[in-house]
Amino acid sequence: MARLMSTALVKGLMRSSRTSSTAVVSRPAIHQFMNYSSSLGGAPNTNGNSTTTRVAADPDTHEDFQPTSKSSNMSFHDIVSQDIKENPVLIYMKGYPDAPRCGFSALAVKVLQQYGVTIKARDISTDIKLKESVKAHTNWPTFPQVFINGEFVGGSDIILSMHQKGELSDLLGDITRKGKQNGGS
To answer: In this structure, are residues 109 and 100 in contact, taking their beta carbons and an 8 Å threshold?
Structure first.
């Protein structure tokens, strides 16, 4: 039944697009009013420019509610350095700890979760500039990339190996003790 409905809908749309040849639309209707892109690695717009944010503004809307650009003045190198410095356990991965988008990222998260530490993460799969900055920072070509106490440790294979040898417990010892002292698990 659902297949019949969707087939009828598609055929109806195709018929209506053939008969209404008087209207010329260069872009989908939603894109005629909005054109989002970000300087932090979003997809370029139709002009190839990836640093602007344009939204058709409503003249009746107060300026406090007008859309603004969310770009930052920080370089990607600074963002990576700040992330590493501020987070005891950090993982640059595909996806997030709750929803990894790659088996290697999922493995690294599972191993780190065995220690009950808080894992901070950044998704590199949606931001090519961030991904390249992390690679340049570590001189390591693959992801995930795990940092513990400001030090680059490696990927999921290294984390797993350290876990199996008992080395990861020593490295995470201070972090897990702090978590238990602060009421963590």
So the answer is: yes
pLDDT in tens, 61-88: 666 665 554 556 788 899 999 999 999 9
Residue 94 has pLDDT above 60, yes or no: yes
CA distance to 55, 62, 92, 121, 138, per residue, from 70 (Å): 13, 19, 21, 20, 27
* Spatial contact of 118 and 98, defined as CB atoms under 8 Å apart: no
Q: CB count, 10 Å around CB of 169?
A: 13
| Long-range Cβ pairs for the range 35-38 (8 Å, 24+) | 38/69, 38/70, 38/71
Predicted confidence band at 174 (pLDDT cuts at 50, 70, 90)? Answer: confident
Contact 76, 129 (CB under 8 A): yes
* Residue 65 CB burial class (10 angstroms; 0-12, 13-18, ≥19): exposed
